[in-house]
Amino acid sequence: EGKGMIGNIYSMGLALQVLEATKNFYGPRKWDCAQAFSVVYAHDYQQPMAIAQVLPALVGKSYLDAAGLDCTATKDMSPGQQSPLSPALVRQGLLTHIHVNYTVTNTLQGKPFNCSISVKVPRGSTLLRVMEVAAEENAETYSFTMEQTSWGPYVTSIHGLAGSTEDRTYWQFLSAGKPLDEGVGTYKPHDGEHIQAVFSTY
Questions:
Q1: Binding site residues, as ranges?
Q2: In whole angstroms, what separates CA 89 from the centre of its chain?
Q3: 136-155 mean pLDDT
Q4: Which residues participate in the annotated binding site for cyanocob(III)alamin?
Q5: Are 9 and 36 within 8 A, CB to CB?
Q6: pLDDT score recorded for residue 89
Q7: Model-level pTM?
Q8: Topology of 97-201 in CATH?
Q9: pLDDT-derived band of residue 12, with 50, 70 and 90 as boundaries?
Q10: Dihedral sign (CA 74, 76, 79, 81)
Q11: Which of this chain's residues are annotated to bind cyanocob(III)alamin (predicted)?
């Protein structure tokens, strides 16, 4: 689905492990993994959890193979070999800073609000940095709280409004109306991009 994307970039590692481990049970249809692996090769993974899940699939293994792993088989690997997980080359641009339009919207609970701001951040900044700059410029509107998880920072509240498992509410981040496939700690907006934080239900 989605030109090789299975779920989102975070679920790719486990999905590839499962498909590789069970491919012999899919006959007579053969699973074509080329598109899925091209998605993985093109992504600059930064979260340790995501890397740990995708690495086995890159060598045709799964977590099930860990018990029989022969560590001596890797002794001749050249440390100079480039890993497919090496960070992508940074594209040099004329702009040293970018402008990102950031909107927070709530129509679910309490008094509705729809606030927008344009912030200037260094090129290559994450969405988390965009949110921090917005909060620095207008704390009353754009302040937020978050908690650290094994997948990186998770936004728990914006504008004093917190998500709740009881109410099945959370803050969803979108670009051009589509949910982001990365978290705020790794997603890097481009110049002129419009990021929306929408209080949503699941």
A1: 8, 53, 154-155, 180, 202
A2: 19
A3: 94
A4: 8, 53, 154-155, 180, 202
A5: no
A6: 34
A7: 0.59
A8: Ferric Hydroxamate Uptake Protein; Chain A, domain 1 (2.170.130)
A9: confident
A10: negative
A11: 8, 53, 154-155, 180, 202
Query: Which one of 54-58, 69-73, 99-103 scores highest in mean pLDDT?
Result: 99-103
Closest residue by Cα to residue 97 from 61, 54, 130? 130
Stretch 83-110: mean pLDDT, rounded?
72
Share of the chain above pLDDT 70, in %: 75
Specify the DSSP element, H or E, that contains 40. Answer: helix 34-42
DSSP string, 45-93: ---HHHHHHHHHHHTT--GGGGGG--GGGGTT--TTSPPTTSPPPPPP-
131: Cβ contacts below 8 Å, ≥ 6 apart: 102, 142, 144, 155, 184, 197
Give me 151's structure tokens.
Answer: 């997948």
List CB contacts of 171: < 8 A, sequence separation 6 or more. 155, 156, 157, 158, 163, 197, 198, 199, 200
pLDDT for the residue 35: 75
Tokens of 89: 């080359």
Segments of the chain assigned to CATH 2.170.130.30:
97-201
| Mean pLDDT score, 83-100 | 59
**Token representation of residue 75:** 């002794």
Per-residue pLDDT, 193: 97
Q: Which amino acid is at 65?
A: D
